[in-house]
């Protein structure tokens, strides 16, 4: 790779020709040596441009800027206002995932993996609802889920001018604060306007990184009950090995019901289950809440992410998984361990995702397309002197920030995961780290009080888990610094990580919440504390680099917001904004793809499920639950169970309904394949990247012939009318 900085040298040569008229000869003074100014070497990789497409920015369209002409031209139908309204009102958002109303009686469909905590929560004493599944035979058997909600987007307001007028009126150094204040005021004003409904939430969403602002008004339902969930083994079939792969055979589905006034809610809008499924070549629409993309990030930002940010985070997640799995193996029977099992599943998802992202962020072809995409943007800006003067300096400054952030690593990453009460680190280390910060802000009494409160509110962890998490952090330091690094050697003094963990737990006053409470006002009592020494070993560099990185990230965020207005000025709504875990329509086509020297089919069947099982004899990830182990005589094994499509998908889309042009459910999105896993955050690459969905035919076939859930099947089928 060639450096992204243009190499240049400033050479100054002065030749003085002195001619003495009376002298018989010409005298020439010697030229001084050229002065060469060294160019700093970039710490980031660079990439050669590769031709790009405007749709490299993706197909995650917002409802307020739905590209109806593009839909009509591409899929040969007329998506009028009524179509857009039904699509918006039938889809819902749940914590961390997506879902949809699928019946006239308030039935909500989402993924099993989105509902694992809730499936565990509704279990009664002696039940293992996560492992054994759950089905409410009657309406009265549906179980209330505590502290849960479903959000339906009922209205959208364009509040761009209300926000940007205040921002533009503020001095440059105050614009970030002005933006935050304006958003709060708009949100509060709209909140008061809809307060009489009693169940509405207002969220001001930044689109195009601040180029536009929309206020989303959600109706929030809080009486949610569990209706049906399959066994974990079939809802996560193939386990971590098959995760992010295809062909798949996964029944990743769960059904809730929304209640209002203790009665099943009767929604005006819902997606009925299609009587027929999809065929290869069919156009489909995924309607959900994609979590976060970086498709409007600059190439320099993406290069930094792939070189520094993602590798450190991947290392941390890998080490946390080791610690949590050690605790789970130590005692898997406690409620805490059962809850952590779901956390481990999520971390393994992220671990695979980050690994794929590292590869994608260093891929010559994909990053080359981003180089070309950015250059097209810059060329268009340069055609307009006003836009060029506004936004080119921002692009350059963002690049400078990435270079400086690179110089701060690894110290700016060493305290990842040490936030108060995080599952990712030991409570002892959280308290000690915050205390070391406390000792650095003696002149800020408000900040000191806030930190003390945070320290006091850090809860104790299981002793065995606490020890594993200290070892986790030591392993992470070893990955980040190298096991022979002087700082790490000073901490360990040639002792094992296990011995260090024991020493800290046995000798630090930060080992328990009760001990900590008594020493916060007594600095002398902790002067020689081993946990304080643990962090002070790194000296000022740890804190200085972390603080400077924080400052740069804040500046970068503000610049990126300003640059978003440049993107919107150039492209308007011809491209979708980056994802923000807000409702989107994502179009695509059902189609297989080439992989591993062969061809992946558009859909898989239950035949493949049983072949997978019998091809992996005595391997737990492909074992089948008891009710599945011998196929029912009525189960049609040729029924499609999963299918793939070119829909744009990312985290947050889990549980999204996949519908045909008639807005009928044909699938339930639950994953992306490995080819999409890394690139989907920063570019749409549909050569072989695919969304993976549960097929509506497989859902109905299993509900009817495996779970005998005739009540639900009848409800879904009758709702077609």
Question: What's the quick description here?
Answer:
Helices cover 43% and strands 15% of the residues. The chain is α+β, with helices and mostly antiparallel strands. Helix 9 runs antiparallel to helix 15.
Q: Structural class from helices and strands?
A: alpha+beta
CATH class of the largest domain: Mainly Beta
Shape category: globular
Largest sheet: 8 strands, antiparallel
Distance between the termini: 60 Å
| Strand composition percent | 15-25%
Radius of gyration, whole Å: 29 Å
Can you tell me about this structure?
- This protein is of the alpha+beta class and 721 residues long.
- It has two domains: 62-149 and 222-293 and 581-718, Thrombin, subunit H; 309-542, no CATH class.
- The protein is built from 25 helices and 23 strands.
- The strands form five sheets. It has an eight-stranded antiparallel sheet. Strands 4, 5, 6, 7, 8, 12, 13 and 14 form an eight-stranded antiparallel sheet that branches. Strands 9-11-10 form a three-stranded antiparallel sheet.
- β4 (91-94) and β5 form a beta hairpin.
- α5 runs antiparallel to α6, α13 packs antiparallel against α14 and α13 (427-438) crosses α19.
- It is globular and about 75 Å long.
- The N and C termini lie far apart (60 Å).
- The model is unreliable at 1-31 (pLDDT under 50).
How would you describe this structure in keywords?
2 domains; 43% helix; alpha+beta; 721 residues; disordered N terminus; 25 helices; eight-stranded antiparallel β-sheet; Thrombin, subunit H
């Amino acid at each position: 790779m060639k450096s992204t900085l243009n190499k240049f040298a400033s050479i100054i040569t002065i030749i003085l020709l002195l001619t003495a008229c009376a002298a018989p000869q010409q005298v020439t003074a010697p030229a001084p040596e050229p002065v060469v100014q060294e160019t700093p070497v970039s710490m980031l990789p660079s990439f050669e441009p590769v031709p790009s497409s405007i749709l490299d920015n993706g197909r995650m369209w917002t409802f307020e800027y739905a590209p109806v002409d593009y839909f009509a031209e591409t899929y040969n139908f007329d998506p009028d206002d009524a179509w857009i309204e039904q699509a918006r009102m039938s889809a819902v958002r749940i914590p961390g995932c997506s879902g949809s109303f699928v019946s006239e009686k308030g039935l909500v469909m989402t993924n099993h993996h989105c509902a694992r905590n809730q499936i565990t929560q509704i279990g009664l004493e002696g039940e293992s609802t996560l492992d054994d599944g759950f089905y409410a035979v009657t309406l009265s058997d549906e179980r209330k889920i505590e502290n849960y909600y479903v959000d339906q987007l009922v209205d959208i307001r364009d509040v761009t001018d209300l926000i940007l007028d205040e921002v533009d009126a503020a001095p440059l150094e105050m614009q970030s604060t002005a933006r935050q204040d304006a958003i709060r005021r708009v949100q509060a004003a709209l909140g008061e306007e809809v307060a009489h409904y009693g169940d509405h939430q207002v969220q001001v969403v930044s689109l195009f990184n601040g180029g536009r602002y929309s206020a989303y008004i959600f109706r929030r339902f809080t009486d949610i009950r569990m209706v049906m969930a399959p066994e974990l083994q079939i809802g996560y079939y193939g386990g971590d090995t098959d995760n992010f792969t295809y062909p798949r055979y996964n029944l990743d589905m769960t059904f809730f019901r929304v209640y209002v006034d203790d009665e099943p809610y009767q929604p005006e809008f819902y997606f009925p289950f299609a009587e027929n499924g999809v065929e290869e070549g069919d156009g489909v629409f995924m309607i959900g809440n994609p979590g976060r993309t970086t498709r409007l990030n600059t190439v320099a930002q993406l290069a930094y992410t792939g070189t520094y940010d993602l590798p450190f985070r991947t290392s941390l997640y890998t080490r946390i998984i080791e610690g949590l799995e050690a605790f789970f193996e130590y005692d898997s029977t406690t409620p805490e361990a059962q809850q952590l099992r779901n956390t481990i599943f999520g971390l393994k998802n992220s671990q695979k995702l980050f690994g794929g992202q590292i590869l994608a962020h260093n891929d010559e072809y994909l990053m080359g397309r981003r180089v070309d995409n950015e250059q097209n943007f810059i060329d268009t800006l340069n055609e307009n002197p006003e836009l060029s003067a506004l936004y080119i300096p921002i692009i350059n400054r963002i690049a400078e920030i990435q270079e400086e952030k690179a110089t701060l690593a690894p110290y700016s990453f060493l305290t990842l995961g040490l936030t108060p009460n995080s599952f990712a680190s030991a409570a002892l280390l959280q308290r000690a780290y915050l205390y070391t910060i406390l000792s650095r802000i003696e002149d800020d009494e408000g900040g000191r009080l806030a930190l003390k409160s945070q320290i006091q509110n850090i809860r104790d962890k299981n002793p065995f888990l606490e020890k594993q998490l200290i070892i986790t952090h030591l392993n992470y330091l070893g990955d980040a610094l190298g096991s022979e690094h002087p700082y790490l050697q000073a901490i360990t003094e040639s002792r094992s990580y296990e011995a260090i963990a024991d020493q800290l737990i046995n000798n630090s006053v930060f080992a328990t919440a009760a001990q900590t409470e008594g020493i916060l006002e007594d600095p002398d009592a902790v002067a020689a504390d081993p946990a304080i020494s643990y962090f002070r070993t790194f000296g000022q560099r740890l804190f200085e680099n972390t603080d400077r990185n924080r400052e740069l990230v804040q500046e970068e965020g503000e610049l990126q917001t300003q640059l978003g207005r440049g993107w919107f000025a150039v492209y308007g709504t011809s491209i979708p904004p980056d994802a923000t875990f807000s409702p989107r329509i994502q179009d695509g086509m059902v189609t297989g793809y080439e992989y591993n020297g062969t061809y992946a089919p558009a859909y898989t069947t239950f035949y493949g499920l049983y072949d997978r099982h019998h091809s992996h004899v005595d391997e737990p990830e492909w074992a089948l639950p008891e009710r599945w182990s011998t196929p029912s005589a009525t189960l049609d094994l040729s029924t499609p169970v999963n299918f793939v499509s070119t829909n744009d998908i990312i985290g947050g889309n889990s549980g999204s309904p996949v519908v045909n042009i008639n807005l009928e459910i044909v699938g339930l999105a639950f994953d992306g394949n490995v080819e999409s896993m890394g690139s989907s955050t920063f570019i749409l690459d549909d050569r072989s990247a695919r969304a993976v969905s549960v097929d509506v035919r497989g859902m109905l076939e299993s509900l009817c012939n495996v779970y005998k859930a005739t009540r639900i099947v009848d409800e879904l089928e009758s709702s077609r009318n």
